[in-house]
Amino acid sequence: MGPVDPLALTVAVEAGAVTEAVHEHCKPYGLTWPVDFASKGSSTVGGNIATNAGGVRVIRYGLTRNWVLGLTVVLMDGTILRMNGSLEKNNTGIDLRQVFIGSEGILGVITETVLKLTTLPRDREVFLFGLSDLGSVFELFEAARKSGMVVNAFECFSQDCLEQVLALRNLSAPFASPCAQYVLLEVERAEGSTVQERLEHWLTGLMESGLVKDAVLAQSEKEAANLWAMREGISESLAHLGLLHKHDISLPIHRLKEFIEVWTRDIDLNYPGLKPYIFGHIGDGNLHVNLMKPESMSVPEFKALCKKADEGMFAWIRKFEGSVSAEHGIGMLKRHLLAYSRSEDEIRLMRQMKQVFDPKGLLNPGKVLPE
């Protein structure tokens, strides 16, 4: 990694730099590259850029592409493209840098980058709210956005999801009585007695209105980490429980509630043996939808049912103008689903771009584009 520039707020790194190492490299300067997720200890900057990675704080900082200034890419014919350098502004035609961000390596190999940095966030306040139903989740989201607080993350998960995390990680239940839905809210800690009073008034109003059944505020970093573990441990816990069929999707935020309702209703009515688990980043419209295989069901039967159930789910995603892949990319497994989120004209242009940059189809062959 190159030196941090505290004036320009940039750092140059090679594609193999680990995300967490970049964070540690910038931290002494009071700066950070605000791309952050559970896999930060193993994910690389080049991989993050190639997939335009998101994470849990997209609601505040946006996607990876927002934090990439310069990019060096090697094409299949050996051409080296050095694009944009450290420029904040560069209005000189098509920004080829953006073509490679999120392209999953099918156009060129990312080797170096100049990252845009920002100041480290202030200390955080981490809340866990217990709610009676799905509608309350979205009412709380609206209330949080109107509160004037700087929201870092707004995560939602069900009681079914929480039960699996508590069992696997030997954590205590957050409240005396279970709730149908939970929201983990992280906000930047505000300074000043007036601001603190406003926050307390907001919380009191939530409780008095009946919108929130129960709530807890972390009193230390350890408690904050334990609350986050209830959300970040869901994927691992479900995988430990049994065989999962899972998708990473996104929808316009105003369609999330309707989608969750129609999808879970479809599973309950037409696939009673399959148990749905759903959680996600409500703040940016990203949901993780999962179906668990019953112990009594064979793997081939389970896969056949899931394939059939997917047809209905993807039809709703197309109707709601959503995406079949929010942050995990297309790769090989979702090539046949691309048409649910991209038009024929878009796919045709993608093929033409692939032909221009990699006419022999040697870069990451078989990925992204349907055959």
Short description:
With about 375 residues, the protein is of the alpha+beta class. The chain has helices at about 20-25, 45-50, 60, 95-100, 135-145, 160-170, 195-210, 220-230, 235-240, 255-270, 300-320, 340, 345-355; strands at about 10-15, 30, 70-75, 80-85, 110-115, 120, 125-130, 150-160, 180-190, 215, 245-250, 275-280, 285-290.
Overview of this protein structure:
With 371 residues, the chain is α+β, with helices and mostly antiparallel strands. It folds into three domains: 110 residues, Uridine Diphospho-n-acetylenolpyruvylglucosamine Reductase, domain 3 (2-Layer Sandwich); 112 residues, 2-Layer Sandwich (Alpha-Beta Plaits); 119 residues, Alpha-Beta Plaits, CATH 3.30.70.2740. It has a seven-stranded antiparallel beta sheet with strand order 10-7-9-8-12-13-11, sandwiched between helices. A hairpin with a 5-residue loop joins strand 3 and strand 4. Helix 10 runs antiparallel to helix 11. The two termini are 39 Å apart.
- Quick one: overall form? globular
CATH architecture of the largest domain: 2-Layer Sandwich
The count of helical stretches stands at: 13
Total number of strands: 13
Determine the N-to-C terminus distance: 39 Å
Strand content: 15-25%
Task: Classify the fold: give the CATH topology of the largest domain.
Answer: Alpha-Beta Plaits
Helix content: 25-40%
Main attributes?
Uridine Diphospho-n-acetylenolpyruvylglucosamine Reductase, domain 3; single chain; 371 residues; Alpha-Beta Plaits; alpha+beta; four-stranded antiparallel beta sheet
